C-alpha cells in the first residue's frame, strides 16, 4: 500500500489550531457515516426493492476504499497533502449524494463504491498529516485525539441514524452529511495549502496495479457468489486466480499456510475481521427481519458493540503498561477463544435459540475481546518489523482487514440473495463467520517466529 513520504525538518512549528479542528471534524464525519450506514441498510434494501444487492452495499464500499487509499497516497506523494485531502473529500461527498438520491439498489451500490474511494483516502489522512505537519512532541496527543474521535460516532451513530431514518428518511443519513462536509473541508484543506512545500515522491506506483487487481478480482468473486449460473462459476474461478496473483505483491509469502511470525499475524487479523465485522454487516438485517426489532433497537446493539470494542482497546493498553509486551501472545490466544464464544451466543440469540438479551451479552463479549486481541496482535506485528517497514506493514494490516470484511459481506449477501428462506440464509451466513473465527485460534499459536 502506498504511503506518504516526507522530509521532516529539524524544528517543525506547531500547525494552526484550525488544522487540528478540521482534521478531527473530518474524522468525525467519516466515522459517523461508517457506523451509521449498516443500521439503515435494511430499510434501504426494502425501499429500493434490492435485497439481492444487500451484500454489495457493504462490499463495494470496502473494496473501493482499498483502492482509494492507494490512489490518494500516490497523489499526496506527488502533489501534496492538500490536493489529496481535497480530492478525497470531494469524491466522498459525491458518493453521499449518489447514494442519497439513488432511485434503485444498483445505483445505491454505485454511490457506495464512490464513497469508498473517498473514504479510503480519508482513512489514511490523519496519519499522513500528523507525520508531515506536527512536531514529534505533538504527535501522540493528536493520535489519541483521532482515536477518541471515533468513540462518539460509535456510541451515537447507529441509534441517531436509525432515528433519522424512521423520523424522516434513510436518504437524509447520506445527503445530510454533504453540507457538514462543505463546512468542515476548508478547515482541513486550507491549512494544508500553507507552510511546508509538497512532499516529493520517492518511487513509482508499485502498489497501484496490485491493489486494482485485488479490488477487481475480489469483486468478481463476490458477484460470482451472488449468481446461480455458469457465468457465476467463471467469475469465482477468475476472481480467485486474480486475488492470488495480486496478493503476492501486497502481502508476505506463507500466509495461506500460516507461516510463523508476520504471515500468521496478518491471517489472524483477517479472519478475526471476517468473523466479527462480517457478522456486524448482517446483524441489523437479521434482527429486523427475524426478531422484529426496529432500526433503532438494532442500532443500539451496534452502539454497544462499538463502545465495548473501545473499552477492550483501553484494557489492552492498560495491560501493556502493567505487564509489558510479553503478555500480548497470551491475551491474543484467550481473546480469540472468547471471541468465538461471544459470537456463538450472539448467533444463537439472533436465530431465536436463546433469549434476545443473549445477543447483547454475546456481542459485548465479542467486541470486548476483539478490542483486546485485535490491538495486541497489531502491536505484536508492528514490533516484528524495523521502523522503515512500519508504513508498509500498516498498509498490509489495513488491506487484509478490508479485503476479508468485503468477502464476508459478499458471502452473507449472496446467501440472502439466493436462498428463499431468510432464516436458513442467516443460519448459514453466521455459521460461516463462526467457522472463520476458529482460524485465529490456530494463528495465535504461530505468532512467534522460530529461533
From TrEMBL:
Keyword Transport annotated: no
Q: Which domain of life is it from?
A: Bacteria
Q: Where in the cell is it found?
A: Membrane
Major subcellular site? membrane
Q: Which Gene3D superfamilies match?
A: MFS general substrate transporter like domains (1.20.1250.20), Multidrug resistance protein D (1.20.1720.10)
**Where does the Major facilitator superfamily (MFS) profile domain start and stop, copy by copy?**
19-448
Q: Does the keyword Membrane apply?
A: yes
| Cited SUPFAM superfamilies | MFS general substrate transporter
Membrane topology, record value: Multi-pass membrane protein
Q: Which UniProt keywords apply?
A: Membrane, Transmembrane, Transmembrane helix
Residue spans crossing the bilayer: 21-41, 53-75, 82-102, 108-130, 142-161, 173-194, 266-287, 293-315, 336-354, 360-385, 397-418, 424-444
The record ties this protein, via Pfam families, to: MFS_1
Q: What is this protein called?
A: MFS transporter
Amino acid at each position: 500500500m502506498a504511503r506518504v513520504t516526507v522530509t521532516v525538518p529539524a524544528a517543525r512549528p506547531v500547525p494552526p489550531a484550525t488544522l487540528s479542528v478540521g482534521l478531527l471534524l473530518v474524522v468525525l464525519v467519516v466515522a459517523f457515516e461508517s457506523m451509521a450506514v449498516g443500521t439503515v441498510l435494511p430499510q434501504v434494501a426494502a425501499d429500493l426493492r434490492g435485497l439481492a444487492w444487500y451484500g454489495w452495499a457493504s462490499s463495494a464500499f470496502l473494496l473501493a476504499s482499498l483502492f482509494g487509499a492507494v490512489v490518494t497516497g500516490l497523489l499526496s506523494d506527488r502533489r501534496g497533502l492538500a490536493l489529496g485531502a481535497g480530492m478525497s473529500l470531494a469524491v466522498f461527498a459525491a458518493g453521499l449524494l449518489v447514494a442519497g438520491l439513488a432511485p434503485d439498489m444498483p445505483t445505491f451500490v454505485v454511490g457506495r463504491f464512490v464513497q469508498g474511494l473517498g473514504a479510503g483516502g480519508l482513512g489514511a489522512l490523519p496519519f499522513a498529516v500528523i507525520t508531515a505537519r506536527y512536531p514529534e512532541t505533538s504527535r501522540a496527543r493528536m493520535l489519541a485525539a483521532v482515536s477518541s474521535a471515533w468513540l462518539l460516532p460509535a456510541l451515537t451513530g447507529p441509534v441517531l441514524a436509525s432515528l433519522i431514518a424512521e423520523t424522516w428518511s434513510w436518504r437524509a443519513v447520506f445527503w445530510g452529511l454533504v453540507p457538514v462536509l462543505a463546512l468542515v473541508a476548508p478547515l482541513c484543506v486550507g491549512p494544508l495549502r500553507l507552510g511546508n512545500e509538497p512532499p516529493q515522491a520517492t518511487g513509482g506506483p508499485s502498489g497501484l496495479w496490485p491493489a486494482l487487481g485485488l479490488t477487481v478480482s475480489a469483486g468478481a468473486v463476490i458477484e460470482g457468489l451472488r449468481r446461480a449460473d455458469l457465468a457465476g462459476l467463471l467469475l469465482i474461478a477468475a476472481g480467485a486466480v486474480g486475488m492470488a496473483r495480486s496478493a503476492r505483491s501486497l502481502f508476505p509469502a506463507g500466509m495461506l499456510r500460516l507461516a510463523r511470525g508476520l504471515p500468521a499475524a496478518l491471517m489472524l487479523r483477517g479472519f478475526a475481521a471476517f468473523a466479527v465485522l462480517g457478522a456486524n454487516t448482517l446483524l441489523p438485517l437479521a434482527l429486523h427481519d427475524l426478531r422484529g426489532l426496529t432500526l433503532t433497537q438494532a442500532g443500539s446493539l451496534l452502539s454497544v458493540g462499538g463502545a465495548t470494542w473501545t473499552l477492550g482497546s483501553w484494557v489492552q493498553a492498560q495491560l501493556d503498561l502493567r505487564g509489558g509486551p510479553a503478555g500480548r501472545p497470551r491475551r491474543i490466544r484467550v481473546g480469540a477463544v472468547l471471541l468465538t464464544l461471544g459470537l456463538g451466543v450472539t448467533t444463537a440469540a439472533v436465530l431465536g435459540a436463546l433469549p434476545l438479551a443473549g445477543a447483547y451479552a454475546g456481542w459485548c463479549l465479542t467486541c470486548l475481546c476483539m478490542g483486546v486481541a485485535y490491538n495486541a496482535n497489531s502491536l505484536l506485528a508492528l514490533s516484528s518489523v524495523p521502523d522503515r517497514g512500519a508504513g508498509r506493514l500498516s498498509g498490509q494490516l489495513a488491506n487484509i482487514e478490508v479485503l476479508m470484511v468485503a468477502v464476508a459481506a459478499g458471502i452473507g449477501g449472496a446467501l440472502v440473495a439466493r436462498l428463499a428462506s431468510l432464516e436458513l440464509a442467516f443460519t448459514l451466513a453466521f455459521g460461516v463467520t463462526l467457522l472463520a473465527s476458529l482460524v485465529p485460534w490456530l494463528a495465535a499459536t504461530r505468532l512467534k517466529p522460530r529461533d
